[in-house]
Amino acid sequence: KMRRSSSEGSLLQREKQNQPKVKKLGGSKFCLNLSMKLGGLGPDYETIKEKVKKMKLQKEYSKQIKEYNMKNITVLQRLPAKPPVSVARQKALEYAKSIPRPRTFLARPEQEVKEALPQAPAAPSLPKIPSLESLWSRHEKEKEAVAAFEALHIL
């Protein structure tokens, strides 16, 4: 075996002291680390204080940002009252003014319409159109007939 100097031996002893102590129970499967710090029962006030402090800082920062944004937004809303009209839109409006509009026809009285239409020869006569009153009475009769059918559940 090799002999070690006393300085090397003291280094090894310090390394062994720094290593966590392990205790074996029964067999090699169960090992406990005795130097491990276990958590206790009850709340951990130190971590809670840190979290509360962090949340307060976040709220203060958010308030500052909100105030800054409110000041800047109100200034921006007042400035642009009406957006400027683009050059292309102005050209389109000028072009639309120069296009002739279609003429609208006004309703003429019936006499003028009859005079304007050329009279057809009398030989091929068209059947007469029944008057409005006769059509209305026919409509009422057919309406009654349909109501009778519905009453009898035929339709």
UniProtKB/TrEMBL annotation:
Signal peptide range in chain numbering: none
Xref: InterPro entries: JHY (IPR027968)
GO biological process terms held by the UniProt record: axoneme assembly
Stretches the record annotates as Disordered: 1-24
PANTHER family: JHY PROTEIN HOMOLOG
Protein name per Swiss-Prot or TrEMBL: JHY protein
Lineage: Eukaryota, Metazoa, Chordata, Craniata, Vertebrata
